[in-house]
Design a protein that fits this description.
The complex is a heterodimer of chains A (about 325) and B (about 425).
Chain A: H1 23-41, E1 54-59, H2 65-76, E2 80-85, H3 95-105, E3 111-116, H4 121-126, E4 132-138, H5 144-158, E5 165-169, H6 176-187, E6 191-195, E7 211-213, H7 216-220, E8 225-228, H8 244-251, H9 255-258, E9 266-268, H10 281-284, H11 292-321
Parallel strand pairs in A: 1-2, 1-3, 3-4, 5-6, 5-8, 6-7, 8-9
Helix pairs in contact in A: 1-5, 1-11, 2-11, 5-6, 5-11
Chain B: E1 2-3, E2 11-21, E3 26-35, E4 38-43, E5 56-59, E6 64-67, E7 69-74, H1 87-96, E8 99-104, H2 115-128, E9 132-137, H3 151-157, E10 161-163, H4 172-184, E11 188-191, H5 196-199, E12 204-205, H6 208-213, E13 217-218, H7 221-237, E14 240-243, H8 249-260, E15 265-269, H9 271-275, H10 297-308, E16 314-315, H11 324-327, H12 344-353, H13 359-364, H14 368-374, E17 389-399, E18 418-428, E19 431-435
Parallel strand pairs in B: 2-5, 2-6, 7-8, 8-9, 9-10, 10-11, 11-14, 12-13, 14-15, 15-16
Antiparallel strand pairs in B: 1-19, 2-3, 3-4, 6-17, 17-18, 18-19
Helix pairs in contact in B: 4-7, 7-8
Classes of the chains: A alpha/beta (about 325), B alpha/beta (about 425).
Chain lengths: ~325, ~425
C-alpha cells in the first residue's frame, strides 16, 4: 500500500514483509538503521524521537531476542513500550485474533509489533487496526526485520550486497527468515543459493530467483556469505531427517565443508544456535569470520529505524487526513 | 562337487569358452585371463598357449563363460534367524547357483538400519570368502514405516540401496519424504509393492482358485495400486524408485507407461512369476505360498512380455528361506517365500530356451542390469573389473530336488522341475569357489 513518500523514502504504512519492496525502499531503511549503530554504542543511547508514542509488542509465540530487541529499540527512541505475550493455547484462532486487534486498537497505540505462528495472520490483523504494524515473524512466511538486520550486517562488513554469492543453509522449508532473506538479497542483486536436504527444500522455490544445492561442499563453493538457519528438534524425529548425527555429518557447518567458500566468507546465524547440529562450535565462535553477535547488535538499529519511519509515516498520513 | 577357497589365485586362463557379456554384447569363442582378483584380458587372444608363460589354463570348450550372477534380492537369516539360513549356507547355495554377489534384505534381527549392522554383515560375509554380500539398508527405522532411517550414513558405510524388505512403506507422506531425502544423495529406494491394508489376511491370489480352496485372497489390486501410487510419488519427488517382484498385468502396464514418460522407475521380477502360476499351489502346497502370491496365467504371460520388451529390468531370486516347521502348517498359517539362489540361473535360461529372449538378454537380467542399478563394480566381463565369473553348460539337463539344495532351508517352489542349463564352475575375485562334479 502506497501512502505517500514519507519523510524517509519508505512509503508504506506497515512493514509486513520484504516481498514487494524495491531496492530504494530497502536502502532507505538500511541507511536510517546505519545512523543508529553508532548511537547504540555510546553510553547515552536515548533519543526522544518516539516520545509520547505507544508501541505494543504482541507476541503469540515465544520469543526472547526479537521481543527484547524491539523493546530496546522502542525505549531507546523514547517511546512507551508494552509487552503482551499471549500463549497460543489460550487464544482461539481466527475471530479471536481480530478481537484482540480491535481491543488493542481502541487503546490507540502507534505501532503494533506482532509475532504469530500462523502465516498471513499479521497481514490479517493489520487490516483491522489504525496504527502501523510491524511483522515480527508470521508462521513460515516472513520475518522482515531479521532480513534487514542481516542485510545491514553484510553491508557493513563487505560494503555492498550486490553481486555477492550468498548461501542460505538448513531448514528452508519451515523458515520465515529464509523467505525474507531470499526476497531481500535477490532484490538487492545478490546471487542466492539454498543448500539443504531435499526434504527441507520447499516445492517451487527455484522460481524465486535462487539456485538450489543438495550438497554443502558444492553449494558453498566460492560463497562470500554463509547463512545458517536454526534446525528445530522436532524436524529430526525421522519425518524430515533421520537423526542429528546424520544431519550434522552432511549439512552441519564445519571447517571441512567451509573449505570451498571464499577464504574470508562471513558466517551468519539468526540464533538461537544449536551447536553440533547445524553449526560446529569452532566455526560459530570464529572471531574473524562469525558475524553472529554483530547480527544481534544490528537488530536493535534496524528496529529503531523501522519504528521511527512507520511512526513518521503515520503522522504524515494523519496530518493529511485532518 | 568340491568347494574350494584357493587364497592365491595368481594368473588363470579360461580358454575355449563361449564368452557371453551382456554389457558389451559380446558372444564369441574365446578366453578370459584373470590375474589376482581382476579380469586381465578378454577375447580370442586368450588361449591355451598362455600355459607356456606359466598361466594356469582351464579348458572350457563347449561351455558358456559369463559374469557371475548378481542376485539383487536375497533374504539371509543371519543375524537373527540362523536356523533358516546363515552367511555360510547362503554362500554355498549361491556359489552352486553361479551367484557371485547377493544383495541382502534388511529384515534381520537386528534390522539393518544402523551403520554397525551394515558393517557386521560386510565383515561376516567377507570371512566366508564365498559370494559377495551387499546389504540393503532400511528405508525406515526398525522397518516400521514411520521415521526415515539414516540413509546417508548407511550408504556411506556400504548399503547399496534401501528397502523395508517384505513390507511396503505404506504411508504416502513417509514414502514421499523418504524418496525426497534419498534423492538428496541419489540413493535408490526399492519397494515391496503391496498395499498392506488390502492384502491383510490373504493367503494366495484372490480369484476362483482361492475360492475353490476356501482360502482368503490377496487382490491383484493390492500390487497395482501401490505401484500406481508410487509412480505418482516419483513424479512428485523425482526420486529413483525400484519396484520389486512385479507380478500383474496392470502393474507392468503402469511401469511401462511411467518409463515411456521418462520417470526414473525400474523393476524386477522373480522366477516364480514367469515360470509358475497359482495352479502350482495345487493341493495346498505351502512351498508355493509366496509374496506376492503366484498369480493367474494371464499375469504370468504379462511378466514374460515385460521381460521381452524391457519393461522389467532385472530378475532376482527373492530367496526367502523358511524352515520346515514354518512351512509344515495349514496353508493360511504357513510362512511365505521360497528359496531361489540355486535355481535362479536355470529358470532364467528357460526364457532363452523357450524362445522368449536372446541369451544375452536373459543373462543381462541377472548381471549387468542389477550391477548398473546398484552401481556395483561386478557383473561385466571388462578388463580391470573383479574376476567374478560363472562357467555353465547351457544345455545340460537336471532335476530340482529340494533335499539336495545346499540352502539350509529347502522350500523351493520348483521342487521336481526339470531344468536345462547347469553351473560348472564359479569364480569369485579370481578364486574358484565351486567346481561341479
Amino acid at each position: 500500500m502506497n501512502d505517500g513518500i514519507g519523510p524517509f523514502g519508505f512509503p508504506h504504512k506497515h512493514l509486513l514483509g520484504i516481498e514487494g519492496l524495491n531496492p530504494i525502499e530497502i536502502t532507505a531503511l538500511l541507511d536510517r538503521a546505519e545512523s543508529y549503530v553508532e548511537q547504540n554504542r555510546q553510553a547515552d543511547k536515548k533519543k526522544a524521537v518516539l516520545s509520547g508514542r505507544t508501541i505494543i509488542n504482541l507476541f503469540f509465540e515465544d520469543s526472547t531476542r526479537t521481543r527484547t530487541s524491539f523493546e530496546l529499540a522502542g525505549k531507546r527512541l523514547g517511546g512507551d513500550v508494552i509487552n503482551m505475550s499471549v500463549a497460543t493455547s489460550s487464544v482461539k484462532k481466527g475471530e479471536t485474533l481480530i478481537d484482540t486487534a480491535m481491543t488493542l486498537n481502541a487503546m490507540h497505540p502507534d505501532v503494533l509489533v506482532v509475532r504469530h505462528p500462523e502465516s498471513g495472520s499479521v497481514k490479517l490483523l493489520s487490516e483491522k487496526v489504525n496504527c502501523a504494524v510491524i511483522n515480527a515473524g508470521d508462521g513460515q512466511h516472513e520475518h522482515p526485520t531479521q532480513a534487514l538486520l542481516d542485510a545491514l550486517t553484510i553491508r557493513r562488513r563487505v560494503g555492498k550486497i550486490q553481486g555477492l554469492r550468498i548461501a542460505i543453509c538448513g531448514d528452508i522449508l519451515h523458515s520465515r527468515v529464509a523467505r525474507s532473506n531470499i526476497h531481500l538479497l535477490t532484490t538487492m542483486g545478490a546471487r542466492v543459493r539454498l543448500i539443504a536436504p531435499r526434504t527441507l527444500i520447499p516445492t517451487g522455490v527455484e522460481h524465486m530467483g535462487v539456485e538450489v544445492f543438495y550438497d554443502m561442499r558444492e553449494g558453498l563453493q566460492d560463497c562470500d556469505i554463509v547463512m545458517m538457519l536454526r534446525l528445530q528438534k522436532e524436524r529430526m524425529d525421522g519425518n524430515y531427517l533421520p537423526s542429528v548425527r546424520e544431519y550434522f555429518h552432511f549439512f552441519g557447518l564445519d571447517y571441512e565443508k567451509l573449505e570451498g567458500a571464499k577464504p574470508n566468507a562471513l558466517i551468519m546465524h539468526p540464533g538461537p544456535m544449536n551447536r553440533g547440529v547445524e553449526i560446529d562450535s569452532e566455526v560459530a565462535d570464529d572471531f574473524g569470520r562469525s558475524a553472529i553477535h554483530e547480527q544481534v547488535e544490528m537488530g536493535v538499529a534496524v528496529r529503531m529505524a523501522a519504528l521511527e519511519i512507520l511512526t513518521a509515516n503515520l503522522e504524515e498520513q494523519q496530518q493529511r487526513n485532518l | 562337487m568340491a568347494l574350494k577357497a584357493d587364497r592365491t589365485p595368481g594368473r588363470v586362463a579360461y580358454v575355449g569358452a563361449r564368452l557371453l557379456d551382456p554389457a558389451t554384447g559380446l558372444d564369441e569363442i574365446g578366453g578370459i585371463l584373470t590375474e589376482g582378483e581382476l579380469i586381465k584380458q578378454v577375447g580370442a587372444k586368450v588361449t591355451a598357449d598362455l600355459a607356456l608363460e606359466g598361466v594356469t589354463v582351464i579348458d572350457c570348450t563347449g561351455l558358456c563363460l559369463a559374469p557371475g550372477l548378481i542376485d539383487m534380492r536375497v533374504h539371509l537369516g543371519e543375524p537373527g534367524e540362523d536356523y533358516k539360513e546363515t552367511f555360510a549356507s547362503a554362500g554355498r547355495a549361491a556359489t552352486k547357483g553361479g551367484v557371485t554377489s547377493m544383495v541382502c534384505l534388511p529384515n534381520t534381527d537386528p534390522v539393518i538400519d544402523d551403520m554397525s549392522v551394515v558393517e557386521f554383515v560386510a565383515r561376516r560375509a567377507r570371512l566366508q570368502g564365498l559370494s559377495k554380500v551387499y546389504p540393503y539398508g532400511a528405508v525406515t527405522k526398525g522397518l516400521k514405516g514411520k521415521e526415515i532411517a539414516e540413509l546417508g550414513l548407511l550408504a556411506e558405510s556400504g548399503a547399496v540401496a534401501f528397502t523395508d524388505g517384505f513390507s511396503a512403506v505404506a504411508n504416502a507422506q513417509v514414502m514421499r519424504r523418504a524418496m525426497m531425502y534419498a534423492r538428496t544423495f541419489d540413493l535408490l529406494i526399492c519397494q515391496h509393492p503391496e498395499e498392506p491394508s488390502l492384502a491383510a489376511g490373504g493367503a494366495m491370489n484372490a480369484g476362483e482358485t482361492a475360492t475353490r480352496l476356501g482360502l482368503s485372497g490377496i487382490p491383484r489390486q493390492a500390487e497395482i495400486m501401490m505401484i500406481e501410487r508410487d509412480i505418482r510419488l516419483v513424479e512428485l519427488t523425482g526420486g529413483r524408485l525400484h519396484i520389486a517382484h512385479v507380478s500383474t498385468v496392470e502393474a507392468i502396464d503402469a511401469i511401462r507407461s511411467a518409463k515411456a514418460r521418462g520417470l526414473p522407475v525400474t523393476c524386477d521380477t522373480s522366477p516364480p512369476y514367469f515360470a509358475l502360476n497359482e495352479v502350482a499351489i495345487g493341493d495346498y502346497r505351502t512351498f508355493a505360498k509366496l509374496s506376492p502370491p503366484l498369480r493367474g496365467e494371464s499375469d504370468r504371460r504379462a511378466v514374460v512380455d515385460g521381460l521381452k520388451d524391457g519393461t522389467i529390468d532385472c530378475i532376482a531370486s527373492d530367496h526367502t528361506p523358511q524352515d520346515e516347521e514354518s512351512k509344515r502348517l495349514p496353508f493360511s498359517a504357513a510362512a511365505t517365500g521360497g528359496v531361489g539362489l540355486e535355481t535362479l540361473l536355470a529358470v532364467t535360461l528357460e526364457l532363452y530356451h523357450n524362445g522368449h529372449v536372446p541369451i544375452l538378454d536373459a543373462l543381462r537380467f541377472v548381471t549387468a542390469a542389477p550391477a548398473d542399478l546398484m552401481k556395483l563394480r561386478t557383473g561385466k566381463l571388462t578388463q580391470g573389473r573383479p574376476a567374478d565369473l560363472v562357467l555353465f553348460d547351457l544345455e545340460q539337463g537336471w532335476k530340482v530336488e529340494a533335499d539336495k539344495l545346499l540352502s539350509k532351508s529347502k522350500n523351493t517352489p520348483f521342487d521336481g522341475r526339470l531344468m536345462q542349463g547347469a553351473v560348472v564352475r564359479t569364480v569369485i575375485d579370481g578364486r574358484t569357489v565351486l567346481v561341479a562334479d
